[in-house]
Fold this sequence. Notes:
Blueprint: H1 3-11, E1 17-19, E2 22-24, H2 31-35, E3 43-49, H3 51-54, H4 61-66, E4 67-74, H5 86-96, E5 105-109, H6 114-122, H7 124-129, E6 132-134, E7 139-143, E8 146-150
Parallel strand pairs: 3-4, 4-5, 5-6
Antiparallel strand pairs: 1-2, 7-8
Amino acid sequence: VPEDELSRSSHGNPGKSLVNGVKTNPASNSPKSSLSVPLGPPVYVDLAYIPNHCSGKNTDPEFFKRVRASYYVVSGNDAANGEPSRAVLDALLEGKSQWGENLQVTLIPTHDTEVTREWYQQTHEKQQELNIMVLASSSTVVMQDESFPACKIEF
Length: 155
């Protein structure tokens, strides 16, 4: 085997790249199609934790169209980092409106934040129309010398 051929094979094919750990050929894929997730049926679950503390970094209406839960947990409590994100809460409304069935959904915020309060007040009619209930919880758990907010979930 000639030396130049050996070095080419050991460095791989520069025309191919990795996207999400999968080899792709950029010439045959547009940027949008190489990052899109294949379509499939929605997934129904009892409980879903909204990713990234309800940050807009990874969650959009597509998440709520595909992951259909009876209960969504919102744990964000960091306004400086956009957690929870108003855009994600709005995405829940948009995604749920695409379900085609009016299943009951309960949103469980684990912290009382200005963002969730404003969203609740401003979109209350839309929530009722879409059969979304927001579960407010002001429970506190005390363990040893520490107390923290808690939310009890029953199925």
